[in-house]
Specification:
The structure is a homodimer. By secondary structure, chain A is α/β, with parallel strands linked by helices. Chain A has one domain: HUPs (Rossmann fold), CATH 3.40.50.620. The first copy, chain A, is built from eight helices and seven strands. In chain A, α1 packs across α7 and α7 crosses α8. The longest helix of chain A is centred in the last third of the chain and has 23 residues. Chain A is globular, with a radius of gyration of 18 Å. About 3% of the residues of chain A have low confidence. At the A-B interface, β3, α3, α4, α5 and α6 of A face β3, α3, α4, α5 and α6 of B.
C-alpha cells in the first residue's frame, strides 16, 4: 500500500525538518501552507526553494507531490482585531499572550489540512507542533493534537493520523534529527533556504542561517544551533 | 454571573430558532456568520433583518449583542475545487456527497467561533447542528460536536460549552420549539425573514416562507411545516 502524507509546511526550520521526516518515512508527500496576511510573509516565499532544495537532495523513500496554498483572507487578522472584553484581558495577561493573538490558530490549520487531505486521499497529516519550546501555546500541546485527531476523524468520517515528530524534542535535537534524515546536504538546505526571523531579515547570514539574531525566533534558532554544535 | 453565548447564525430557520433559544436562556448573546462565497449568499443578507425581528419581539431574558462576520475568503471554495484522487472518489460516492463538498465545514465554523468567543469572553457556543435531518454529514453529529468541545478547550485552554438545541429534533419539532420560545411573533418572523432555498428564491411566498419549494432545503422546510401543522 502506498503510504501518503500531507505536511503543514510554512518554509521554516521546523516544517522543513518535518517535510524531510515525511519524505524519509512515506511514499507520497504533499505540502500545505496558509496565507493569512502574516507579518513574516517572506516565509511563504521561501516555501518553494525549500521544497526544491529537499527534492534535489534525493535518496528519499517518498516523492514530493503537490503544494497547496489555502488563502484564509482576512479571517485571522479580523479575529486578532476583535475587541477583547475585560474578562478576557485578565486571562490573556495571565497567559502572557499578545493582544492580537488568534487562539487556536493551529486547530484551524489542522482542520483545513484535513479537508485537503480528505479530498486528496492522503492518510497522514504532519505538523511541527512542539511542547518543548512553545509550551505557552495550548494549541501546540500533545493532548490538543490527539483530541483534534478524534474530532477530525469523527467529523469527516475518516481515519487520519496526526503526527508531530518534533513534539518532545528541543531545537538542538531538531538539528540533530535533520542531520540524521538528510545528512549535511539537508543541514545546508535548512541554513540557506528556510526562514525564521520575525522581522523578515534575509540579508544577515549567521552559521545557523539568516535573521536579525535578536528577535525571539532568531534567538531560539541560534541557541538551538549552538547547543547542537556543542554536542558534536 | 452574567451568562454569555455566541450563536452560529446564518439567517436560516434553524439558526434563527437557536438565536431565540439563546436569548431565552442567557443574558448576553452575540452572533457570528461566515462569508465564504456561498451560492446562497442571500442568506447572509437576511441575517440583519432576522436579528432585528427577534430583538423587536422582546421579552427575552437576554440582550442581543454584537454580530461578527468572519470572511473566509476563497479558502472553502478552493478546497471544494481541489482535485479528488481515485481513492477519495470511491469514498465520496459511498457517502453520496457532492463533488464540491468541503469536509468538516462545521469544524471550521466552530473553531472560528471559539476564537471569537475567546476574544469576546463568551462562554457558550450554540449551533443548529442536527442529526435528525442531516445524518449524511458527519460534522453535524453529536459525537463530533462533543469531541470538538474537548479539542477546542484543550487547544485554547478554556471551558467553552458547545450547545446544539436542535440535535435530536426534526423540522416539525423545530417549528414547535420556536412557538414555545417566542409565540406567534417568532413564527411570523421566521416565516417572513429567514431564508432556506438553495436557489435563493425570495419572491415566491408559501405558508412556511419564501423559496422555490422544490430544492432539497425548501422540501425539508415545507415538509416540516406540514408535519407540524398536522399536529396542532
Amino acid at each position: 500500500m502506498t503510504e501518503t502524507a500531507l505536511v503543514l509546511f510554512s518554509g521554516g526550520q521546523d516544517s522543513a525538518t518535518c517535510l524531510a521526516w515525511a519524505l524519509h518515512h512515506y511514499d507520497h508527500v504533499e505540502t500545505i501552507g496558509f496565507a493569512y496576511r502574516q507579518r513574516h510573509a517572506i516565509e511563504l516565499e521561501c516555501r518553494i526553494p525549500v521544497r526544491d532544495a529537499l527534492a534535489r537532495i534525493g535518496g528519499w523513500r517518498g516523492t514530493l507531490g503537490a503544494d497547496h496554498i489555502v488563502d484564509l483572507g482576512s479571517s485571522l487578522s479580523a479575529i486578532g482585531q476583535t475587541a477583547l472584553t475585560e474578562d478576557v484581558l485578565i486571562a490573556m495577561n495571565g497567559d502572557d499572550l499578545p493582544n492580537t493573538f488568534v487562539p487556536g490558530r493551529n486547530l484551524l490549520f489542522l482542520t483545513y489540512a484535513a479537508a485537503v487531505a480528505y479530498r486528496r486521499g492522503l492518510k497522514r497529516i504532519i505538523g511541527g507542533m512542539c511542547e518543548t519550546d512553545f509550551s505557552g501555546y495550548p494549541d501546540c500541546r500533545d493532548d490538543t493534537i490527539k483530541a483534534m485527531q478524534l474530532a477530525l476523524n469523527l467529523g469527516m468520517n475518516q481515519r487520519f493520523v496526526l503526527e508531530t515528530p518534533l513534539m518532545w524534542i528541543d531545537k538542538a535535537q531538531t538539528w540533530a534529527m535533520a542531520l540524521g534524515l538528510g545528512g549535511q546536504p539537508l543541514i545546508d538546505a535548512i541554513i540557506e533556504e528556510t526562514h525564521t526571523c520575525y522581522l523578515g531579515d534575509r540579508t544577515t547570514r549567521h552559521a545557523w542561517g539568516y535573521g536579525c539574531s535578536t528577535c525571539p525566533a532568531c534567538e531560539l534558532r541560534a541557541n538551538g544551533w549552538r547547543k547542537w554544535q556543542s554536542t558534536l
